[in-house]
């Protein structure tokens, strides 16, 4: 049965007049016969009805229900929703469904106006849903800014343009934004046309970084170390040896088992673990050299696995050491996920990360199955200012232009700076990378009267970053890196002023005020971190009137920050699991340390072991009164693979009875507490007497807390001393089970308090 017959014979085969209307549409499918604007509703009434076509799926029917809901909300109408057989011969129509005579691909959608009738269709249920939401947003003026904030115009008369001939297919067909705003609310995800599942056909426990799952160290390493990577003449369980025949057999059998247990799954990831400690044995190295990249041994291995599963797909990574393309083409059933983790986010990838662009182009010459795993926020400090929003559009355009159909934008999932704005912009750009004015659209809609001030903040911080073209905006950076650039004290005061004005503008609107308070968290966090550095009289932990009292401005700022986070259900500070509660309590401890009497403050420090890279390798960091935060960039003196030995000259003989030294732990970055810390004293700087030693009572384990600060505090009977010596013993290298096994470990030390 043709569509023109089927549409009117579903229930009532006698509606001849309607057949004529549709036939007219079909014969003039690209020509509008209407003059002047179309009134979908008029003064709260309508002569339209919504007709869902055929016997729709539940999803397609719900798309029609959604359209009805929004028309009724906007105009105060009760527009009829009927099936084909129940439609009136008098009313104009809004047809919703798959129109057979309009050929659409599965991701394509169409909105047409013909002879006052509106036809909304899609090449699949999902495309139809997208078409309905496009119509609601673009033609009815509805905006969705968050799961709880939508803007619906109130107008009794809905006027449509006289010509609507819209056809669209998003070139990025799998669009994922790693944000709980979407993951926890499917309806909001649908409105912004993103998926809540980036891996819909994958075996759920084999999506990425799977080497250790196929051949776990706990099971195989002791008896079969040859299965693992050779690093500096030692086998370590960091990665697999991809030229070992037993490794191939075990992985092949494991993949087969996963597909057998998950018969509906189509994809298994066979991919490197999250480190760069790949195998350098003779066989692997020979392949990598011939292939021009460590991706060579990986792709040859993955291709060999994929040969066994021609009706399935094997996914792998082009990530860190495997990012550069090799010479061998991936098989047609091999998916390449290219990751941009190293890139500088201060400017578009094409400006600051040309090697990634070259790798993208290189992989696109080898395969059509390129997937992009991109990153949009700072993972070491979710709530820190991270002015990369002007890079989002050119980066998505780069991916689109190089035929990436699958893009996963790794947000923080948990809230980060301007979380709703970031989620909104990213989702909208994945749908249409050429959209303009999204920041203005969002700030005006979401923050209302305060939006102009939030926009000023966004514009200014990006402009200030641009003044420092050499600044590397890193995913694993820290706000302390910018205290002499876009987060300098003068600018922090301006940003603070913008948010003060924003709060004042919506003071009588509690819900909007709450949004503004959440938006200012990043500026407040930067202020709190700046205060640890004692940048000026306001940005200081201690009162300028009394150095043994806390700065009340900072104490109040900490309380506001904490309370805003708790009210917004913001619980994590970074991807390492450092919680807001831990940050709050740690900060209070930092204030306690800052106001302690410290006779070592400002005193000369001499190092007998060499630091590396951080805190400008300046020994005076240990007594400068500035305190490090939970990231090693912030005022920590680092020692890589060697111990700490330092002497502090108190200038004169002092009576002392306690010494405290702070150490940082960030286990995934090979930063561990020292094994022990010893304290000594002397009056001639030649002969030192040992005061005592503290053994680390939190030895490193797989279950150790990833990110924290520990104070090695030692009290002793009073002694008279001028010189204090501190020794801290480094582990020297990461343990064999750590992802950085074989690499030198760090200790990071900060303020020494002597009382």
TL;DR?
This protein has 755 residues and is of the alpha/beta class. 32% of the residues lie in helices and 22% in strands.
Characterization of the model:
With 755 residues, the protein is an alpha/beta fold. The chain contains 22 helices and 25 strands. The strands form 6 sheets. Strands 19, 20, 21, 22, 23, 24 and 25 form a 7-stranded antiparallel β-sheet that branches. β7 (143-146) and β8 (149-151) form a beta hairpin. The longest helix is centred in the N-terminal third of the chain and has 18 residues, at 58-75. The radius of gyration is 31 Å and the shape is flat. It starts with a helix and ends with a strand. The model is unreliable at 1-35 (pLDDT under 50).
Strand elements, count: 25
Shape designation: flat
Structural class: alpha/beta
The overall pLDDT average reads: 93
Q: Low-confidence parts lasting 5 or more residues at pLDDT below 50?
A: 1-35
The radius of gyration is 31 Å
Keywords: Signal
Domain F5/8 type C: 617-736
Protein name: DUF4838 domain-containing protein
InterPro entries: DUF4838 (IPR032287), FA58C (IPR000421), Galactose-bd-like_sf (IPR008979)
């Amino acid at each position: 049965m043709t569509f023109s017959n089927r549409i009117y014979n579903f229930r009532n085969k006698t509606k001849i007049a309607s057949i004529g209307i549709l036939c007219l549409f079909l014969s003039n499918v690209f020509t509008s016969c209407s003059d002047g604007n179309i009134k979908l509703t008029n003064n709260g009434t309508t002569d339209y009805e919504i007709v869902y076509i055929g016997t729709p799926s539940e999803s397609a029917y719900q798309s029609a229900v959604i359209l009805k809901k929004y028309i009724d909300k906007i105009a105060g109408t009760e527009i009829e929703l009927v099936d084909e057989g129940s439609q009136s011969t008098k009313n104009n129509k809004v047809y919703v469904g798959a129109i057979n005579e309009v050929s659409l691909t599965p991701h394509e959608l169409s909105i047409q106006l013909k002879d006052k009738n509106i036809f909304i269709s899609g090449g699949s249920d999902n495309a139809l849903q997208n078409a309905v939401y496009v119509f609601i947003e673009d033609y009815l003026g509805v905006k969705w800014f968050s799961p709880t904030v939508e803007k619906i115009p109130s107008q009794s008369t809905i006027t449509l343009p006289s010509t609507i001939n819209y056809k669209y297919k998003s070139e990025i067909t799998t669009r994922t934004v790693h944000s709980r705003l979407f993951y926890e609310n499917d309806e909001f995800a649908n409105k912004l046309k993103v998926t809540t599942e980036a891996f819909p056909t994958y075996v759920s426990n084999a999506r990425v970084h799977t080497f250790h799952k196929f051949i776990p160290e706990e099971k195989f390493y002791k008896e079969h170390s040859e299965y693992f990577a050779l690093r500096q003449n030692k086998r370590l369980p960091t990665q697999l040896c991809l030229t070992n025949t037993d490794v191939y057999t075990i992985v092949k059998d494991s993949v087969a088992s996963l597909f057998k247990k998950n018969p509906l799954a189509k994809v298994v990831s066979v991919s490197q673990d999250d480190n760069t400690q790949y195998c350098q044995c003779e066989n692997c190295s020979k392949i990598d050299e011939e292939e021009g990249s460590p991706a060579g041994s990986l792709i040859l291995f993955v291709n060999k696995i994929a040969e066994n599963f021609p009706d399935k797909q094997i996914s792998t990574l082009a990530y860190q050491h495997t990012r550069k393309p090799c010479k061998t083409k991936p098989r047609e059933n091999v998916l390449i996920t290219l990751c941009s983790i190293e890139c500088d986010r201060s400017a578009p990838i094409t400006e600051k990360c040309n090697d990634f662009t070259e790798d993208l182009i290189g992989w696109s010459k080898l395969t059509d199955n390129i997937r992009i795993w991109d990153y949009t926020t700072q993972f070491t400090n979710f709530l820190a200012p991270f002015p990369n929003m002007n890079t989002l559009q050119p980066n998505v355009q780069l991916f689109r232009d190089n035929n990436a159909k699958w893009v996963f934008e790794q947000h923080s999932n948990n809230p980060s700076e301007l979380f709703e704005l970031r989620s909104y912009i990213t989702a909208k750009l994945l749908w249409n990378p050429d959209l303009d004015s999204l920041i203005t659209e969002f700030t005006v809609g979401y923050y209302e009267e305060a939006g102009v001030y939030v926009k000023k903040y966004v514009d200014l911080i990006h402009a200030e970053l641009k003044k420092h073209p050499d600044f590397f905006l890193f995913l694993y950076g820290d706000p302390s890196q910018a205290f002499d650039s876009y987060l300098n004290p003068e600018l922090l005061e301006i940003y603070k002023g913008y948010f003060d004005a924003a709060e004042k503008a919506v003071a009588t609107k509690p819900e909007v005020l709450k949004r503004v308070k959440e938006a200012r968290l990043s500026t407040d966090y930067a202020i709190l971190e700046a205060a640890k550095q004692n940048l000026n009289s306001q940005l200081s932990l201690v009162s300028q009137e009394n150095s043994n009292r806390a700065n009340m401005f900072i104490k109040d700022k900490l309380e506001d920050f904490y309370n805003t986070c708790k009210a917004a259900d913001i619980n994590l500070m970074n991807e390492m699991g450092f919680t807001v509660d831990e940050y709050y309590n740690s900060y209070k401890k930092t204030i306690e340390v800052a106001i302690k009497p410290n006779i070592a403050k400002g005193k000369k420090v001499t190092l007998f072991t060499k630091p590396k890279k951080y805190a400008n390798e300046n020994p005076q960091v240990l007594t400068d009164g500035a305190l490090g935060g939970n990231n090693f960039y912030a005022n920590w003196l680092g020692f890589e693979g060697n111990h700490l030995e330092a002497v502090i000259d108190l200038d004169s003989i002092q009576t002392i009875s306690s010494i405290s030294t702070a150490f940082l732990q960030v286990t995934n970055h090979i930063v561990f507490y020292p094994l022990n810390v010893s304290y000594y004293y002397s009056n001639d700087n030649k002969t030192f007497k040992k005061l005592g030693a503290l053994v680390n009572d939190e030895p490193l384990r797989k279950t150790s807390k990833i990110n924290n600060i520990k104070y090695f505090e030692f009290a002793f009977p009073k002694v008279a001393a001028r010189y204090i010596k501190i020794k801290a013993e480094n582990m020297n290298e990461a343990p064999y089970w750590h992802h950085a096994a074989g690499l030198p470990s760090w200790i990071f030390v900060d303020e020494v308090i002597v009382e």
